[in-house]
Design goal:
The protein has 197 residues and is of the alpha/beta class. The protein has seven helices and six strands. Strands 1-2-3-4-5-6 form a six-stranded parallel sheet. Helix 1 packs parallel to helix 2. The radius of gyration is 17 Å and the shape is globular.
Length: 197
């Protein structure tokens, strides 16, 4: 019914408000990822609305990465629309990541077909990372992403052992409970202060 698009716009505007607040406070700005539903690619002018919100809050589009789940590309008839949408997002200055890669019916062809900036490997990969085959698979995906010009991000890293093993795969970034659970902005700011003081 289109309500997911309203939710996406709301969340994106909240992120822009945080950027505006941090900018006023003289804090260092860094990229934030925002989920973007497939329905936005069906709605007229949805991507332009995102750009207008960023402009309203004077947010540099380079600071925003839109996350697209791999399931968005399973519909062949819709995949072309999404590919064009990614091109448009790039023209507007935003970056895009392929989220939850490996969670469902991942096709390596997606990595070659899509002009994405990052591949976020699903947490399922890392539950059995001690298994040599799994580790070799992760290493191969990381290397493939690098050769295609995309960053690699490991999602759902929870233990020191997982972190040690993921570092051996040369994966570029890590997110997960090993560092912190998801936090409200105020708690994140306090957490960040403890990491930088």
């Amino acid at each position: 019914n289109g309500n997911i698009c309203k939710l996406d716009l709301y969340m994106f505007e909240e992120v822009c408000k945080v950027f505006q607040k941090w900018k006023r406070e003289g804090k260092e700005l860094f990229p934030i990822s925002v989920n973007l539903s497939r329905q936005n690619f069906r709605m007229p002018n949805a991507l332009e609305k995102l750009a207008a919100i960023a402009k309203q809050y004077e947010v540099d589009a380079k600071l925003v990465e839109f996350e697209l789940t791999e399931s968005i590309f399973l519909d062949d008839d819709f995949a072309g629309t999404v590919k064009q949408g990614i091109k448009e997002l790039h023209k507007l200055g935003f970056s895009c990541s392929l989220d939850d890669f490996g969670s469902g019916f991942s096709a390596l062809g997606l990595l070659s077909e899509l002009d994405i900036d990052a591949v976020k490997l699903d947490r399922r990969f890392f539950k059995d990372i001690e298994n040599k085959k799994v580790k070799d698979l992760i290493t191969s995906i990381v290397e493939l992403a690098r050769k295609l010009g995309a960053r690699s991000i490991a999602e759902g890293i929870e233990t020191p052992e997982q972190l040690r093993l993921i570092k051996e795969t040369k994966c570029e970034m890590v997110q997960g409970y090993i560092y912190s659970k998801p936090l409200p902005v105020s708690e994140f700011e306090a957490w960040l202060k403890t990491r930088t003081d």
